[in-house]
């Protein structure tokens, strides 16, 4: 299976419509950060990007989930996922440093700052990874993304997706401002996704 074929299957299964609000697809380096409600989130968000952007974008995903079984391992390779070990995080090899090393000056990232799937209506507090990515690479555009309805396409505990309509909304890029405290930046980033949900 090729990347374009996988992207087509993901689009068909999720019925995803895509909106760009005050933002356009671009091959510049970005960090797309989104709410997280389903194991399909990374795949469908990646698939919703135009081809020239998609091939330069790597979803960050949980190693313990995507390395479980041949099919998941294979799929994670097809969409070039950057797998993070959530159980053995080492100080001298932090996930943020690993991400920055892997993307170099070429690739963009897809991250989920809540850190795990959240099926409630309210976004949970963001983990600090997004802040440190933007602090260490202030040139990266941070693009908020709201994913709607994917938790119903692949409900928690289910293996087979249920074909339903979903929506992926990309919002205006933001950057870490000079001297901006971590808590303030993460609150601002969380609010950016919340605004997209209400549009």
What this model shows, in words?
It is a single chain. The protein contains 9 helices and 7 strands, in the order αββααβααβαβαβαβα. With 199 residues, the chain is of the alpha/beta class. The chain has a single domain, classed as Glycerol-3-phosphate (1)-acyltransferase. It has a 7-stranded mixed beta sheet with strand order 1-7-6-2-5-3-4, sandwiched between helices. Helix 1 packs across helix 2 and helix 6 packs across helix 7. It is globular, with a radius of gyration of 16 Å.
The rough form would be described as globular
Helix and strand string, N-terminal first? HEEHHEHHEHEHEHEH
Instruction: Provide the CATH architecture.
Output: 3-Layer(aba) Sandwich
Overall domain count: 1
Q: How much helical structure, as a percent, in the residues?
A: 25-40%
Query: What would the CATH topology be?
Result: Glycerol-3-phosphate (1)-acyltransferase
Number of helices: 9
How many strands, what sense, and barrel or not for the largest sheet? 7 strands, mixed
Using only CA atoms, what is the Rg?
16 Å
User: What separation lies between the terminal Cα atoms?
Assistant: 36 Å
CATH class: Alpha Beta
- Relative strand content: 15-25%
Could you tell me the mean pLDDT?
85
Low-confidence sequence ranges: none
**In order across it, which strands form the biggest sheet?**
1-7-6-2-5-3-4
Q: Total strand count, please?
A: 7
Seen as an oligomer or otherwise, the chain set is single chain
CATH superfamily: Glycerol-3-phosphate (1)-acyltransferase
Class per helix and strand makeup: alpha/beta
């Amino acid at each position: 299976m090729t990347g374009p074929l996988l992207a087509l299957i993901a689009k068909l299964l999720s019925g995803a419509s895509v909106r760009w609000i005050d933002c356009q697809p671009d091959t510049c380096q970005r960090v797309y950060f989104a709410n997280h409600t389903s194991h399909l989130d990374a795949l469908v968000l990646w698939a919703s990007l135009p081809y020239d952007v998609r091939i330069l974008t790597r979803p960050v995903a949980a190693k313990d989930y995507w390395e479980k079984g041949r099919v998941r391992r294979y799929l994670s390779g097809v969409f070039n996922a950057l797998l993070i070990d959530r159980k053995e995080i080492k100080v001298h090899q932090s996930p943020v440093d690993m991400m920055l090393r892997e993307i170099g000056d070429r690739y963009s990232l897809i991250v989920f700052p809540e850190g795990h799937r959240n099926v409630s209506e309210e976004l949970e507090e963001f983990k600090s990874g997004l802040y440190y990515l933007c602090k260490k690479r202030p040139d990266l555009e941070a693009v908020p993304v709201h994913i709607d309805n994917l938790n119903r396409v692949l409900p928690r505990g289910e293996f087979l997706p249920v074909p339903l309509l979903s929506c992926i909304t990309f919002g205006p890029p933001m950057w870490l401002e000079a001297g901006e405290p971590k808590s303030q930046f993460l609150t601002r980033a969380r609010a950016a996704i919340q605004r997209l949900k209400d549009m």
